[in-house]
Design brief:
alpha/beta, 8-stranded mixed sheet, 9 helices
């Protein structure tokens, strides 16, 4: 398909579109990168994003053998080890996958969050994978592409998860110091420490239409500030008006837009090599 690097895998869908109510035909929606005719963007899992962004056959995953463990013996409301084991049984080993690929022939490092694994939460393993990939991208001056979908830091790993924010942020700084192009795609939802430490710090921050982006949910903010919040203040479109993101791009156009941006950023770098 023209909009992607390869055939997208199936994803779980509702019977009807939650925005327009039209009955969904899975195969038709799959050919449209899981975007309804009304413009509603369905959430995609990590495998689908890799298929969309990476050229067919080019994805090479790194550090998949680094796995999470229940270091704090977390039990409430559910044993963390049980959560990990259940996710592994479903074929998931962490909330973040990283690796190398090509996009329209351009070599890239690609990091993809998967919301199915504990809400795409930032963990020790996720932080390590992200940091290693950022550092290697900086060393080779290879463009870095991030796909974010997260609820924030993983509470089951306590302060050890929060510490990843500083580690990742330092690696992002090294990426910028190396003048390495960095592109971030914020999808629905991207909350908490992920936008703060990583997803809103790219050279170009791209959001999907209608994506929820912010630090915490509107209910928590309202309870904390007792303030009336603007309508849609955490939407991608509101963030664009306020300068938090640089552009809002439909998923069907995302691959072509990224390829163009990578080419633009690489031109001056080629002249200095």
């Amino acid at each position: 398909m023209a909009a992607s690097g390869g055939r997208l895998p199936p994803i779980a869908l509702t019977t009807n579109c939650p925005s327009c109510g039209v009955g969904l035909v899975p195969e038709t929606l799959r050919d449209q990168c899981y975007v309804c005719d009304c413009g509603h963007h369905f959430r995609m899992h990590g495998d689908a994003w890799i298929a969309l962004l990476a050229d067919a056959g080019s994805w090479h995953e790194r550090w998949a053998d680094i796995r999470p463990h229940d270091l704090l013996e977390w039990k409430v409301p559910k044993a963390y080890q049980e959560t990990i084991d259940q996710a592994r049984a479903e074929g998931l080993n962490e909330a973040v996958r990283v690796g190398t690929a090509t996009l329209a022939g351009h070599p890239i490092w690609l990091a993809v969050f998967d919301f199915r694994f504990v809400g795409g939460s930032l963990s020790i393993v996720a932080g390590e994978r992200l940091t290693r990939s950022l550092e290697q991208a900086a060393a080779a001056r290879t463009p870095y592409v991030l796909l974010a979908a997260s609820g924030g830091a993983r509470m089951q790993e306590g302060i050890l998860a929060l510490m990843q924010m500083a580690k990742i942020n330092a690696a992002v700084g090294r990426l910028h110091q190396a003048a390495t192009p960095y592109f971030s795609i914020l999808t629905d939802p991207t909350y908490g420490g992920v936008p703060a430490s990583l997803a809103l710090l790219a050279d170009v921050n791209i959001a999907e239409p209608g994506a929820a982006i912010g630090f915490t949910g509107p209910r928590v903010i309202r309870q904390s500030t007792y303030a009336d919040l603007p309508s849609g203040f955490q939407s991608a479109e509101f963030q664009l008006r306020c300068g938090q993101v640089d552009m809002v791009v439909a998923r069907t156009e995302l691959r072509a837009r990224l390829a163009h941006l990578i080419e633009l950023y690489l031109r001056p770098l080629r002249g200095r090599r």
